From TrEMBL:
Residues 1-55, 139-165, 329-376 are annotated as: Disordered. This is Pre-B-cell leukemia homeobox 2. GO terms for cellular component: nucleus. Keywords: DNA-binding, Homeobox, Nucleus, Transcription, Transcription regulation. InterPro entries: HD, Homeobox_CS, Homeodomain-like_sf, KN_HD, PBX_PBC_dom, TALE_homeobox. It holds the Pfam family PBC. Residues 1-11 have a biased composition (Polar residues). It comes from the Eukaryota. Belongs to the TALE/PBX homeobox family. Residues 247-310 form the Homeobox domain. Residues 143-156 have a biased composition (Low complexity). One of its GO terms (molecular function) is DNA-binding transcription factor activity, RNA polymerase II-specific. Residues 54-248 form the PBC domain.
Length: 413
DNA sequence: GATTATGATTTTCT
DNA sequence: AGAAAATCATAATC
């Protein structure tokens, strides 16, 4: 627009702009246009000498004014500024100018002032809060996250050690996060204050309304919040990596202690006809082995399926435990049995005397006496009670395993 | 380092 | 819902 003026502008102001006509190089341009009607003298396109002189005088005046400003002392300038500020028309003029600004350039920004909270940021906030990184410092924050993550899988005996390591690392992340957040907030506050002061200062000489300052502050905060989002995102990533490293149970699998395996195996082989411990029995076993109930369940699940898949592989182990149990039973011979007892006493529950006979170790062999004994047991009141609580047992274990028990194992059962 | 053992998880079944 | 079966991933062993 402005650049076109010299070409098309031959109106009343044409030829009076500062510097344009004064520049000698512009004359050929102007000369393209024929002389307009307000020049009846039919000048050949060159500015009239009077006009030219007038323009030069104007420019000279302006230059002179500029020069005098630099000559003014600071006090003088301040006094003038003050006088301007105290001018009775100033507030009115100020507000009018502010209004005009609002209606023009700044109206665009009004539309985006009330934007909804960023869903991504909300998600990050929620996660940081849940992980105990953000929010109030509470001792149980990290621990709660850990227990929540491990509740399904159970805890290994050395888990407390690893959890403290996890907590320590998490608190490191927390510290870094809070330090960075503080830095960010400080920087944001500093910058905001600086800009506000600057704008307030400038509002004395140019139309800057308080509303505009507020808006500017909001813009600054928006810009800074993107940095905050990045910080939150990287913190979340760090927490996720930490979690996957420390809380993935499969990653840190530890074998149970020998003693724990012993206890579990003893129970398993002494209940080979129905290796489904009740909830109470599981709790008891868990207590004895120093593992969780779900770990006991896992162990029995694994053991059952692996035993069933390859019985011959487990024969030796089975016989060892059967012998152990049988010997235990022999030792206890004569002592009163409590058929409905639970827990470790259940190991010898109902195990009949093997008539002094040592376990035969007839791998896979199955005599008719054992079979009938097994059948008896199968339909004994106790067994039927247990069976009703273990639906799968009658369908799967009974058919595939129980009828392959060796005499020693059966005796143990 | 290949193989096996084993605890945990996931999927399927009853 | 709980167990079986399949699978994964790591520990232990050779």
């Amino acid at each position: 627009m402005l650049q076109q003026q010299p070409i098309t502008g031959n109106g009343p102001n044409s030829g009076r702009g500062i510097g344009l006509n004064a520049h000698p190089g512009m004359h050929p341009l102007n000369s393209v246009h024929p002389p307009t009607q307000h020049r009846p003298d039919g000048d050949s396109g060159l500015e009239g000498t009077e006009n030219g002189h007038e323009n030069r005088r104007d420019i000279g005046d302006i230059l002179q004014q500029i020069m005098t400003i630099t000559d003014q002392s600071l006090d003088e300038a301040q006094a003038k500024k003050h006088a301007l500020n105290c001018h009775r028309m100033k507030p009115a003029l100020f507000s009018v100018l502010c209004e005009i600004k609002e209606k023009t350039g700044l109206s665009m920004r009004n539309t985006q002032e009330e934007e909804p909270p960023d869903p991504q940021l909300v998600r990050l906030d929620n996660m940081l809060l849940a992980e105990g990184v953000a929010g109030p410092e509470k001792g149980g924050g990290a621990a709660a996250a850990v227990s929540a993550a491990t509740s399904s899988g159970g805890m290994s005996p050395d888990s407390s050690l690893e959890h403290s390591d996890y907590k320590q690392k998490l608190s490191q992340i927390r510290t870094i996060y809070h330090t960075e957040l503080e830095k960010y907030e400080q920087a944001c506050a500093e910058f905001t204050t600086h800009v506000m002061n600057l704008l307030r200062e400038q509002s004395r000489t140019r139309p800057v309304s308080p509303r505009e300052i507020e808006r500017m502050v909001a813009i600054i905060h928006r810009k800074f919040s993107s940095i905050q989002t990045q910080l939150k995102q990287s913190t979340c990533e760090a927490v996720m990596i930490l979690r996957s490293r420390f809380l993935d149970a499969r990653r840190k699998r530890r074998n149970f202690s020998k003693q724990a395996t012993e206890v579990l195996n003893e129970y398993f082989y002494s209940h080979l006809s129905n290796p489904y411990p009740s909830e109470e029995a599981k709790e008891e076993l868990a207590k004895q082995c120093g593992i969780t109930v779900s770990q006991v369940s896992n162990w029995f699940g694994n053991k059952r399926i692996r035993y069933k898949k390859n019985i011959s592989k487990f024969q030796e182990e089975a016989n060892i435990y059967a012998m152990k149990t049988a010997m235990g039973a022999t030792q206890r011979e004569g002592s009163p049995h409590t058929p409905n007892s639970t827990g470790s006493a259940d190991l010898f529950l109902g195990a009949p005397p093997v008539n002094g006979e040592q376990p035969g170790y007839h791998m896979g062999a199955q005599d008719s006496v054992s079979q009938s004994r097994f059948a008896d047991r199968l339909y004994s009141p106790r067994e039927s009670r247990v069976r009703s609580s273990s639906h799968a047992w009658s369908c799967s274990w009974d058919r595939t395993v129980s009828n392959k028990l060796t005499p020693a194992q059966l005796a143990a059962c």
